[in-house]
């Protein structure tokens, strides 16, 4: 009986991983929100946020998890001169967060200060499911549009992210 239950558990875990791997988030279509929130840590995320601001999809952008030593000038040099007006007027650098959970907490405080109720969450496709879960936990009343940056994650990266996602869901379910 224990062997059968273990085999069933393993089968569900493997099927869950397969579903997780083949159903990565995609970029969102048009849709205005109060804010764009970009989670640092992956290629193309900030660029996607700037593109959304250029297209006037939001009023303001928060780059959550920015290194405290990074300035708007650093970003302008990296992103090019076309980004300068947007960086000057409409971008806030959040350096309080160190992980996905604290990204959501930092964003909640920022959204409350700004009086915003909707956001477009920008992160990598492989990270979106867990990030979205954290943001829905911290901002249950907010409208959240998932806008994933397409990547080519390795099998190891997907496996690690799937396990983080499962562990976080379990921790919340067990209230720990």
Which descriptors apply to this entry?
176 residues, alpha/beta, five-stranded parallel β-sheet, 7 helices, Cell_Envelope_Assoc, Rossmann-like_a/b/a_fold
Shape descriptor reads: elongated
Number of strands: 5
Q: Would you state the CATH class?
A: Alpha Beta
Helix proportion:
40-55%
CATH topology: Rossmann fold
How large a portion of the residues is in β-strands, by DSSP E? 15-25%
Order of helices and strands: HEHEHHEHEHEH
User: How many strands, what sense, and barrel or not for the largest sheet?
Assistant: 5 strands, parallel
Question: What is the assigned CATH homologous superfamily?
Answer: HUPs
Q: Which structural category fits the helices and strands?
A: alpha/beta
Distance between the termini: 30 Å
CATH architecture name: 3-Layer(aba) Sandwich
Number of contiguous helices: 7
Adjacency order of strands in the biggest sheet = 3-2-1-4-5
**Mean pLDDT rating:** 93
* Rg measurement, Å: 18 Å
Overall number of domains: 1
InterPro entries: Cell_Envelope_Assoc, DUF218, Rossmann-like_a/b/a_fold
Organism: Sphingomonas swuensis
Protein name: DUF218 domain-containing protein
Pfam families: DUF218
């Amino acid at each position: 009986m224990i062997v059968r239950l273990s085999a069933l558990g393993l089968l569900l875990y493997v099927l869950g991983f397969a579903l997780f791997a083949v159903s990565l988030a995609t970029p969102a279509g048009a849709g205005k929100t109060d804010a764009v929130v970009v989670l640092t840590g992956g290629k193309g995320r900030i660029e996607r946020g700037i593109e959304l601001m250029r297209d006037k999809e939001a009023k303001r952008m928060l780059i959550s998890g920015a290194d405290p030593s990074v300035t708007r000038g650093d970003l302008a040099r990296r992103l090019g001169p076309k980004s300068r007006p947007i960086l000057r007027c409409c971008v806030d650098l959040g350096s309080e967060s160190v992980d996905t959970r604290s990204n959501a907490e930092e964003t909640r405080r920022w959204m409350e200060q700004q009086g915003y109720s909707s956001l477009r969450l920008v992160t990598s496709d492989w990270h979106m499911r867990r990030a979205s879960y954290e943001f829905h936990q911290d901002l249950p009343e907010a409208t959240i549009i998932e806008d994933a940056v397409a990547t080519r994650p390795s099998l190891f990266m997907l496996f690690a992210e799937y396990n983080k996602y499962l562990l976080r869901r379990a921790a919340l379910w067990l209230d720990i």
